[in-house]
Each structure stands twice: as structure tokens, then as C-alpha cells.
Write a sequence for this structure.
């Protein structure tokens, strides 16, 4: 039997304080699905999000949260929302290479240096473009994690040429393309499966944020860690369109008020703090080596990433959109949020 972590609010108690329109709405029970364990720092914000929607609806909207891939694999969560397997799902657009080319701009190397400002900016930016590639769901919000980097069990990765010949589990499609371009082998695995593929030698390195390395036990199978804000992955929430349309006007407003830029930042903040706290823990481990990049090494990585940017632009152009305008919009929005690399 599936075990849901449920946001429970007593309807009768809340309805006493709700407005008459909310009190007359029919109760609706909704399923939220994500793929990380309930111990992950993205789970508690999801509970708070659900509880806030229940309260704002006067108790007419209630939510059951299914973590840890209980309703389906991480790669399938967008389609699960589209098809109604769950009502709201957490998605990583990069888990489906080529499907969401515009969203892929967030995955390009060295786009942002922190998750809180980055999430504010990238959610604001993507709202202007989501209708171009996520029109079959209701878009709720988009976050990014604290920048991730390379972690390896076999050797330091300090320059692009160090990737040649390595088997690497990338975080998303864009980083996967970068690995391939550099002569590495791209090993596909979702976050919960990552430790297993490294432990078995299927992969030798991984791109991951700091705190999650510890959460998923990847500190046990890696030794060398690049300390650089190399990339972020977009992580968002979408909703089944038919379920949203079936709600009352007041209930739709509750959903709309919570599918917001403000909530994107709230959802990202606890995760950002968690990921940042992981770095000093690795630095304190005697059997691990954490190393920084020189300015010359950073420049080499940025130069090496130019073909990845071109490939992204080509994919966006093939989808019928203007990549130059889209990327300029993103960079400007990140800069305004104070989250751009120096």
C-alpha cells in the first residue's frame, strides 16, 4: 500500500472562519507527488505549501503528499501531472532531454551563483515562456537548487580535458551534452539511483549539489570535489489542467496565489540553506579533497561550454523560438536579482 505524507487540516474548524463562498465549495482531495525522500529539504516546504493552500481554501482543498517515487519514477513526473496520475507533481525538465528546450537555458554552466536569487529570477523569467513548451499543464512555479559541481571517486576534475574518458552521471540534459562534448560518457540515473551507479562502477563521477551528496550517501563513494558554482537544475511544480479547471473560482484563486514567484522563493530557501551547509562538512573530512578553481581554469570551462550554449540555441531555434532574446532575458533577470556570476 502506498504511504502518503499527508497535510491534514481540520475542515470543520477552518470552515467556521472561512468566507461564505469558500464554505460553499465542494471539498476536493488532491495528490502531490515528488521523487525525493521525505527527509529531503524539499519535502517540508511542500508540506507547508499544501497546508497554506488548505487554510486559504477554508479547508475545501486537502492534499496527500507522496514522496520518494511512490506514484512513479522521477523521469515521469511531468507526464503524471498531464495525465492525472497525480494532481500536482515536482518536475525536473532536464530529466527529459530535448522536450523543454527553453527551460534548458537554466541548466547552462555558470548561470547563477545562489539558489535564492536564482530561483526568484528564473521563476520570473520562465513564467514569460512556459506557455511555449508546457501548455498541456498548469505551470505553478520553478526553483533552482544551490549550484552543484563535479564530484569524483577516481581523480580531480579541474579542467575540461579531465572529463575525457570518464563515465559521469550528469544532473540534467545540458550537462549531459557537455560531458559528451568533452569526451566523457553520459550515464543516466535519477538522484535516488545515483549512489548505486557509482558504487557499482557504472559511473566514476557525478554532478550534484553539496548537501544532497550527503543526503543520498554519495560521500561514501566519492573523494574529489570541485568547489565552483558550476551549474543549477530547474525543479518546478506543475498541475493537471483538467483538475485545475474543475475547481471553483475561489479554489482556483487559492491555487493561483500559491503558484507564485513568492512561493518559488519560499520553496527554494530551505533547500538552499541545506545545500550550502554541506560544503563545510566535506571540507572537514580528512579523506576527501575539496579544491577551488583558479581564474584561468574557470575561463577554460567557460570557453569549453560555448558549444553547449550553441547547441541549446539551435534546439530552441528548431522549436520555433528566438534563443538570443530568450537568453538575454534570462541573463538580465538573473543580474537584476543579484544572483549572476561576477
Amino acid at each position: 500500500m502506498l504511504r502518503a505524507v499527508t497535510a491534514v487540516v481540520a475542515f470543520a474548524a477552518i470552515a467556521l472562519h472561512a468566507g461564505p463562498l469558500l464554505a460553499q465549495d465542494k471539498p476536493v482531495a488532491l495528490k502531490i507527488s515528488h521523487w525525493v525522500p521525505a527527509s529531503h529539504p524539499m519535502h517540508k516546504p511542500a508540506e507547508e505549501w499544501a497546508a497554506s493552500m488548505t487554510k486559504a481554501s477554508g479547508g475545501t482543498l486537502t492534499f496527500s503528499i507522496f514522496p520518494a517515487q511512490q506514484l512513479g519514477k522521477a523521469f515521469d513526473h511531468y507526464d503524471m501531472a498531464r495525465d492525472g496520475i497525480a494532481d500536482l507533481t515536482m518536475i525536473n525538465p532536464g530529466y527529459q532531454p530535448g522536450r523543454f528546450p527553453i527551460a534548458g537555458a537554466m541548466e547552462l554552466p555558470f548561470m547563477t551563483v545562489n539558489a535564492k536569487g536564482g530561483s526568484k529570477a528564473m521563476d520570473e523569467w520562465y513564467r514569460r515562456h512556459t506557455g511555449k513548451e508546457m501548455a498541456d499543464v498548469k505551470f505553478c512555479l520553478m526553483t533552482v537548487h544551490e549550484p552543484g559541481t563535479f564530484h569524483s571517486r577516481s581523480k580531480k576534475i579541474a579542467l575540461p580535458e579531465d572529463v575525457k574518458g570518464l563515465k559521469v552521471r550528469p544532473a540534467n540534459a545540458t550537462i549531459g551534452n557537455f560531458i559528451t562534448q568533452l569526451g566523457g560518457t553520459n550515464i543516466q540515473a535519477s538522484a535516488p539511483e545515483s549512489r548505486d551507479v557509482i558504487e557499482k562502477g557504472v559511473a566514476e563521477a557525478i554532478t550534484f549539489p553539496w548537501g544532497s551528496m550527503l543526503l543520498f550517501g554519495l560521500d561514501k563513494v566519492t573523494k574529489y570535489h570541485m568547489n565552483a558554482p558550476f551549474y543549477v537544475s530547474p525543479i518546478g511544480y506543475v498541475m493537471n489542467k483538467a483538475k485545475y479547471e474543475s475547481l471553483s473560482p475561489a479554489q482556483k484563486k487559492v491555487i493561483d496565489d500559491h503558484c507564485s514567484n513568492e512561493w518559488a522563493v519560499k520553496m527554494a530557501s530551505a533547500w538552499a540553506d541545506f545545500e550550502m551547509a554541506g560544503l563545510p562538512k566535506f571540507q572537514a573530512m580528512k579523506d576527501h579533497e575539496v579544491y577551488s578553481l583558479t581564474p584561468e581554469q574557470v575561463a577554460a570551462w567557460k570557453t569549453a561550454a560555448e558549444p553547449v550554449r550553441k547547441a541549446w540555441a539551435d534546439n530552441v531555434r528548431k522549436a520555433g523560438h528566438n534563443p538570443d532574446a530568450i537568453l538575454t532575458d534570462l541573463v538580465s533577470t538573473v543580474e537584476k536579482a543579484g544572483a549572476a556570476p561576477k
